[in-house]
Amino acid sequence: MKAKSLVGHTLDYNITQFNCEHFVNYLRYGKPHSQQVKDGIDVAVGVLGAMALGAGLIYLVFGGGKEEENKNERRLRRY
Prior knowledge:
Layout: H1 2-5, H2 20-29, H3 35-63, H4 65-78
Family: Belongs to the H-rev107 family.
InterPro entries: H-rev107_PLA/AT, LRAT_dom
Domain LRAT: 1-36
């Protein structure tokens, strides 16, 4: 058994690369995998994407009008 062959060995722990879920899947299926880590990364990417989209919308709604105001000011200065 794979588990018996690892008795007495020290394995490096890494929360994203080789945690306890990775270890169990390695023993059971021969491949280290963690669905929790994958789900966490997916959530983080989704949150960052939503924040970027929100920041872009805020800029368009509140910051984008400044360029139009500057154009109007330049027109008024000409007269």
